[in-house]
Amino acid sequence: MPRKPLRERNNPADTTKRTSRVRQIIDNLIGTEDPDDLMLLIVDKLRDTTLVPDIGKHYIFFYSPKTSGISYDAHPFVAVTNIYRWGFRGINLHWGETRQYSWEEVIGSLHKVYPQEIRDLSALPFANIKRT
């Protein structure tokens, strides 16, 4: 069987590839990184994006709620459990609890996280918990 051309073998969207797109970020951590700076580094690596998530998949994104008086994660890392007309619900892996996210409060796109990257992203301190 012929081998794939090099450009096909190095496709970052190839989910059969067992390397993490964010491993280099972990390898370069010094321990004083700001969550906003880390998030920017991460989204630069996770260039495979979507506007509507798939149930059962993982994503990171920027979030700014309109509801006042709540605590929220400005950089959610979510396993999506439900999709609705108004938005979606998922388990925020930074908090370990279910949260809901409306479409209008998601800033930009959702960045897809592949299964082999979940552990690496869980090790990165990019959560940015705020209060409105």
Would you write up a description of this structure?
There is one protein chain. By secondary structure, the chain is an alpha+beta fold. It has one domain: SH3 type barrels. 20% of the residues lie in helices and 31% in strands. It has four helices and eight strands, in the order H-H-H-E-E-E-E-E-E-E-H-E. A hairpin with a 3-residue loop joins strand 4 and strand 5. The longest helix has 11 residues. About 8% of the residues have low confidence.
* Low-confidence segments: 6-10, 12-16
User: Which class in CATH terms?
Assistant: Mainly Beta
Radius of gyration: 16 Å
Main β sheet profile: 6 strands, antiparallel
Can you tell me the CATH architecture?
Roll
Series of H and E elements? HHHEEEEEEEHE
What CATH calls the topology is: SH3 type barrels
Shape estimate? globular
**Percent range for β-strand residues:** 25-35%
Main-sheet strand order equals: 1-7-2-4-5-6
* Number of alpha- plus pi-helical segments: 4
Q: Helix- and strand-based class?
A: alpha+beta
Number of domains: 1
Rounded mean pLDDT is 89
Kindly, what is the distance between the CA atoms of the first and last residues, rounded to a whole number of angstroms? Answer: 57 Å
